[in-house]
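U., I forgot to send this yesterday:
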Amino acid sequence: MISIHVQILLIILFWNSDCQIIPRIEECGLSCSQGIHCKSKPSSGILNSFCHDAPASLSSMVLKSMKISTVMKCVQGSACSLHLNIKGTLSLDENIRGLEICSLSLDTQRSQCTNVRFARKKSKMLNGKKVQVQFNCIEVNVAQHIYVTMKTVPNYCEVKLSQEYYVEDCRNSDVGKYIPACSAGQFDYNVDRARKIISVNVSNFLRDQDYYVRLCHKWFTCEDVGAFAVIKGKESLKSVSLKYSQLLPCLCIEGWLAIPDARRIQLCPFENDTKALWDNIVYNPATQTLAWEPACPVLVMVNLCRLMKSNDHCEDIQNSSKNSPEKQVKYSRVDTHPRLCMKFTTKQGSWVKCPFAHGEFPAWKMRTAAAAEQIQVFFTSQTKAQFSVLVCNRTQLASCESVGMHHSVSVGNSVSITMSQEMCGSTICIQGWRTDVDYSVPLQICDIHCE
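Result:
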């Protein structure tokens, strides 16, 4: 158990990191102590990348105590920017002409290097004296992970300082307030469902800075839905209109400032509009495959079911349950009967879709004719099909227990079923279903009256 004193110390440390004020500078530059004149110029870092053996007279401690911090450059009329403030101490030596300071972004692998050179006459006079070098012209981004190195020129092996550094992020109140990348803005929106347009008003973002707004579908990332719109910083009207095709649970509004690595904000206001998800059902007659693919990530249980005539309840078909977090759901060799449906069940409820209910695909029918102690069963279908028939006792609305043999029959033929007097009655049914497919709905003709 952490003691109360340690807990208080941790709270203070976290509070300080979020509330720490970043020092301000108006101009970046280079400075050297001891009155030494030093100059800097950009370097590729390639020429000084290979090290040489140091002279025997040169101590490995000639370069020490590198310190890194963040400073904020703010110029009136311009946005503030973050810079690394790098300090190091060098013992002047006749074998050293200068320093090379490099920063490598571990996020982007982009490097920046600067050569620092000392005035030769002055540095020779102060040979052996310590000089502090301070450089703060390396611009960085919010929350960047940086690797900083400081080497001598020439580059002597074993004489090098290096350090990893994390730039403050937007949780720092100073950074969050003054750095444009943290000023993500706020949304206000209105939906015109008749015209399928979302109007977006943006506020609380950096003045005179352009702003991007787009619609996207949120999966692992937010994927584009059409082109993004631009709100010009100099325009007084800070609103755009974006067209959509469907209001889906994963449809989001995303906005960000038109600057590199800008922080983005998202608003996903239609998370409960799941109804449109269940429309994407496709049947392929050539393969007899029924498929559904979610337009958004959704945790759903999918079943095939039989729509009951009496109460519009849809009874699950055995062995048809499938979970679909993101993937396509497929059923092969499916009966195209109008009462075969798909049921989608989530935490919010259940939805039933019947893709064959509109008569676009051929449906089979079953009829009976009574003669003496026999029931003649006929099947009609526009396509070749095989069926199975049995007599059953309907104990429940969706349950019918077999009381006789199974009979096989094909389209165009009939089967005769002998019915005893005990088998005739209101709960007795003739049940038929297709056997040449994997998923079929059973049809029943009940209340059999024997002659």
